[in-house]
Amino acid sequence: MQTSLRPKHIWLDLGKGLLSPLASTKRTLKDLDGFFVDAQATENILKSGQDPIIYEVYESLQPQEDGHLNFGTTILHPGKIGKEFYMTKGHFHMKEASSEVYLGLRGEGLILLQSSTGNSECLRMSQGDLIYVPPRWGHRTVNVGAEELVFFFTYQADAGHDYESLKKEQGFSKLVIEEHGRVNVVDNPRFMTRI
Ligand code: PAN
Ligand code: ZN
Description:
Blueprint: E1 11-12, E2 19-20, E3 24-28, H1 39-47, E4 53-60, E5 69-76, E6 80-81, E7 84-85, E8 92-93, E9 100-106, E10 109-115, E11 120-124, E12 130-133, E13 137-143, E14 149-156, E15 161-162, E16 174-179, E17 182-187
Antiparallel strand pairs: 1-2, 3-4, 4-5, 5-14, 6-7, 8-15, 9-12, 9-14, 10-11, 10-13, 16-17
Bound molecules: 5-phospho-D-arabinohydroxamic acid and zinc ion.
5-phospho-D-arabinohydroxamic acid (PAN) is lined by residues 57, 74, 88-91, 100, 139, 153, 155, 161.
């Protein structure tokens, strides 16, 4: 049976992307060890004693049951590891028949989408961009600008997250890198399809 909740009020600071009164979960480079293609660049930064925050997530979590929605914001900081722009880990949802909506609030970004059958898409994720992530499409956001990338998301509370399938080795088929001062979406040399 579905848990009954009281309505909630949460305030979204559209300028900063903060959801009040929630606290954010921070993802640092250490959390993303193994996700960026340039393992040496990751190692060099961590060895030097730095562990930069790559992104922060403000999330209102509901009971993990059919009928509820989780929602929140992600603040993806600007920067690169080697040539690769800061990005989220990216995931498939465990519950295959679940979908998600993203809304760009600020900054300049891209969203990489990859279906479980190997198709991929790369869409713009900036202010006003609404992205529908259909069932069975993995998704990762990338900050290609000089400012923070802020976006809103909502998805089914019982969707679950599968991160392992999209780590570097099996990975996304595309990488977003900077070459000669330009943003390029290139083939991931280590991509191995999971089918
Ligand atoms: C988003 C993401 C959020 C962080 O809420 O979870 O942007 O990205 P990772 O989960 O890939 O680290 C979402 O897609 N939820 O399903
Ligand atoms: Zn998701």
